[in-house]
Amino acid sequence: MKTRRMVSLAFFIALAIALHYVESFIPTLLPIPGFRLGLSNIVSLFVLYYYGGFSFIFVVVVRVLLVALISTGFGPSFFMSVGGSLSSILISLLLFYVVKSSIYSLSVSSALFHSIGQLIAYAIFFSTPYIFVYLTILGPLSMLTGYLMALLVKILIKRLPSFFRVEERKRRT
Hints:
Low-confidence stretches: none
Oligomer: single chain
Distance between the termini: 23 Å
CATH topology: Arp2/3 complex 21 kDa subunit ARPC3
Structural class: mainly alpha
């Protein structure tokens, strides 16, 4: 069973990286620097709901490291990604295990905190606190994309076989 779980998580990491790569080809509707849809978060949310917190952390951290290794490098964008991912992980686990909130509020909060974490990393890396003004633009857009990603995960969950849903209910209670 342990091997099956590791293979599944490796598949989800590869899928998240592929979605991250595909997302770079999608033209943004709004010309806002740093704004992305966050398609790889569909995979992260799914892993959180069906494999638990440890697997969720593993998938997100390995995805960030591999994306940096493959495409972006370990410069400012890497540190912004790490900052966003860490804050997103913290709020997601808090809402999932302590508050037991819906997938919508979890995803929206996670997207917002990802933006906040990225801006904190940017402010530290470039020594400029003025970047937080950008949150007035990036915050609502992040929340909107967080809602859309939750909607897609909810559709995916409904299409899964019933034994997956039963396992998720057992895990949440």
